Amino acid sequence: MLPLGPASAPQPGHPGYPPGVADGEGFLIRARITGVGSCLPPRVVTNDDLAALIDTSDEWIVQRTGIRERRWVEPEVTTSDLALAAASEALEAAGIGASDLDMIILATLSPDHEFPGTACFLQAKLGVAGCAALDVRQQCTGFIYAVSVADQFLRTGFCRRALVVGAEVHSKGLDVSTPGRDLAVLFGDGAGAVVLEAGETAADGPGILSTHLHADGSGATDLWLPAPGMAYERFMSADLLERRLQFPQMNGRAVYVNAVKRMAEAVVEAVAANGMKVEDVDLFLFHQANLRINEAVTERLGLLPERVFNTIDRFANTTAATIPLGMHEALRTGRLEKGMVVCGAAFGSGFTWGSMLLRW
Ligand code: UT7
Question: What is the pTM of this model?
């Protein structure tokens, strides 16, 4: 039996934060990632493929964003399909079955349906019932928020094993025409998943060391999908379609400026809360919205560029799937090894931003 943790678990730096739940013998209860998986649809869409459909060019996209290609699903594939593939791989890597899970948390901005949450569809596809299933709708910061939610439940003893998935199908919701070109070129489809398990560890042992979450709703309409919604006379109508409100809209400049500022702040907050410096971090898994954003954060914080793991050239922005996809890719390519200190940070629609620091 795990000892019960505190009723609430404040964040590092906040009064009363416990470094973990001590068991009296110098060990802590931490959430640890025990399996990682990912899924990328096989169809590659290059910048030239997009330039054949809309007024854009490979040169513009590479120069402004660093994106060279992205993956897009076939019409019949859903977010929960991608989530299932990533989750199955993560469960296998962890050496457990779906029936061992106490909780499924799925972060997405592209749910299969308006309700119920896509975590429920994923649970059914995993062939299990009974455990909690929860959606997180925090866009590009979704995976960080979802890991933080799982971390609280695991450290307090509410559950022992959680599946956290980030999955997105963007391609079906984009305005792939010249008026929508600013957003159409940025996004890709994909999914990443981790299994998190609560366990005892030494203070310098593996696990999630901290998470920090933030939001500023005054930026909500700088990157949003206006319709459908209950804000209108009808949830969906011909009028809304005519006004093209079913397509995402973005103030690219405002997102860019805030992303650089907030991601840098989130990294500083994460390392400071753990008594570390940015030099102590072996690998940065940043959200991948624009290579220039990550280069600016790298420069602002004086990070070693080789410690920042970027995937945007091949996968584009996969929103909530980005960080677990990157984690899996880093593992697969030998960039992520046992004992490393890893910092994940993200910024996105909401505005939302946050970080997680962990030892692998
Ligand atoms: O997770 C959050 C997701 N979003 C982001 O992170 C986006 C953050 N913002 C950005 O990355 C950049 O603002 C963009 C890459 C979206 C745009 O780059 P920019 O340097 O800020 O370009 P801009 O919006 O100022 O547009 C410059 C020009 C415009 O033409 P005019 O008005 O100067 O004639 C745009 O119409 O580029 C045009 N443009 C394009 N041209 C070719 C916009 N999109 C495209 C395109 N291809 N896809």
Answer: 0.93
CA–centroid distance, 125 to ligand 1, in Å, is 38
What tens digit of pLDDT does each residue of 137-174 get?
A: 999 999 999 999 999 999 999 999 999 999 999 999 99
In the chain the domains, ranked by start, together with CATH numbers, are: 29-201 (3.40.47.10), 204-359 (3.40.47.10)
**Tokens at 277, concatenated:** 């410096």
Nearest CA to ligand 1 atom 18: 64
Active site includes 317?
yes
DSSP result, 227-247: -SSTTSSSSS-HHHHHTTTTS
> How far is 195 from 317, CA to CA, in rounded Å?
23
Would you say the CB of residue 351 lies under 6 angstroms from ligand 1?
Answer: no
Does the pLDDT of residue 15 top 80, yes or no?
no
Active site residue 294: no
Ligand 1 atom 26 nearest Cα: 182
Atom of ligand 1 nearest to the CA of 349: 2
- Cα-based angle 50, 54, 80 (whole degrees, multiple of 5): 50
Residue 95: is it exposed, middle or buried by C-beta count within 10 angstroms (0-12/13-18/19+)? Answer: exposed
Tokens matching residue 172: 């079906």
